[in-house]
Amino acid sequence: MKLALIDYGSGNIHSVSRAISHAATQAGISLSLQLTDDPDQIYQADRIVLPGVGHFADCYRSLTAIDGLVGALTEAVLGRAVPFLGICVGMQLLADYGREGGAQTASLGWIGGVVDRLPSRTADNKDWKIPHMGWNSLNLHSSNHAMLANIEQGTNTYFVHSYYYQQLPPEYLLATTDYSDEIPAIIGKDNIIATQFHPEKSQQAGQKFLNSFLHWQGQP
Fold it and tell me: Could you tell me if residue 194 is inside a domain?
């Protein structure tokens, strides 16, 4: 199996690489993991992972600055239906646009929706520390998606973010977590799966999720 882990300067790519390699070893999968920004390698991959850490607009600029990368990514994921995993900002880039820093930045738009800042004070006047950083439990909204087969209701995963997905079409919402608002934690559409939490930092739960992704055939 060839897995393209996209290296565009905007992710903790080595931690993700180690976690995926460990999951493959545990699953007995022979994996060729390529840290790459090469459009040909991305297009030919059997699995694609897009990580992301940092500013939404910076991440999208970095992605589009590499000649041919977004085109190859789009052809592979939307054209060839290659199983795709987005992590953190890699998930947020699936929205139509983000509002980080007061500006509106257009993005991939594969799933739709908007990315905006987490509220630091809610309607009941409760203050919340931003960024949201630490372990939170998952509220599963679907019981029949293949990527949720090894995840139990209330599973704890690790989050680090100040912005979150909003206005998501409800049919693509697979799990949420609660922190100052209801936060989409796992979203999915066809051969696309994405997490706001970090599987590579989520210990056993994260390893189970990555194991499922390596076995996943790209169907809900």
Answer: yes
